[in-house]
Amino acid sequence: MAYTFTLTTTIPATPQDIYEAWLDSIAHSAMTGGEANMSAEVGAEVSAWDGYISGRNLELIPGERIVQSWRTSEFEEHEDSIVTIVLQEVDDGTLLTLQHSNVPDAHRSYEEGGWQSNYFEPMTAYFVQRKRAVGEGEDGAPRKEAVRKLTPRRAVKHVPARSKASSAKAKKRIKKKAKAVGTAASTRKRPKRGLKVRRGRRR
Q1: Where in the sequence is the domain holding 51, given as residue range(s)?
Q2: Does a structural domain hold residue 200?
Q3: In degrees rounded to 5, what are phi and psi of residue 12?
Q4: SS3 138
């Protein structure tokens, strides 16, 4: 025998952020605390919780819907269950509606706290922590001071040391040349006003 159940929760993140995190191996692992191997390609094999869960991507609509076949190592000869996740934007983040179908009747724990403790609660903690890390305000916009702190140094434009040195040398040459020209001009004899200067020896 198999049964179907539906659960809902609100996650403090955008539908697109949840969609991308769910299908990313590193983010999924960080959300749940168990190693995951995920993919954003339809038909790709996936796994979670250190291999305890395995399945395949059946349908993917970015930012809206994820459908995966889903089985655990305890399913034995039972066929795969189906997990359907629908993401809907709400004021507090995203309303996540999860439908788990074709679940073995003996595995009621998934409905009775399993999804909440192993996914919904750690996902909420993950996105709250991530929001604090990037310094997002109440409106979801990153705080400027946090952006400055998190901006990698390589992203800041700097004048290369060689360019600075070249520029300094160039300025020094120009200054030296200008000084030389100024000195030559000051030592050059200028005719006095009212006197007529003739070439050759003055009489």
Answers
A1: 2-133
A2: no
A3: -75, 65
A4: coil
Residue 170 lies in a domain: no
Neighbour-count burial for 181-202, b at 16+ CB within 10 Å, e otherwise:
eeeeeeeeeeeeeeeeeeeeee
Q: What is the pTM of this model?
A: 0.65
> Which CATH number characterizes residue 35's domain?
3.30.530.20
Residue 113 gets the label, from left (phi > 0), alpha (psi -120 to 50) or beta, of left
pLDDT tens column, 43-91: 999 999 999 999 999 999 999 999 999 998 888 788 999 999 999 999 9
Establish if 54 belongs to a structural domain: yes
Closest by Cα among 119, 40, 39, 104 to 73:
104
Domain presence at residue 21? yes
pLDDT in tens, 141-191: 444 444 333 333 323 333 333 334 444 554 455 455 555 545 444 444 444
Cβ-based neighbours of 127, under 8 Å, separated by 6 or more: 11, 12, 13, 17, 18, 21, 93
Q: Which residue has the tokens 């705080």?
A: 143
Number of structural domains, the chain?
1
Cβ atoms within 10 Å of 1's Cβ, excluding its own: 7
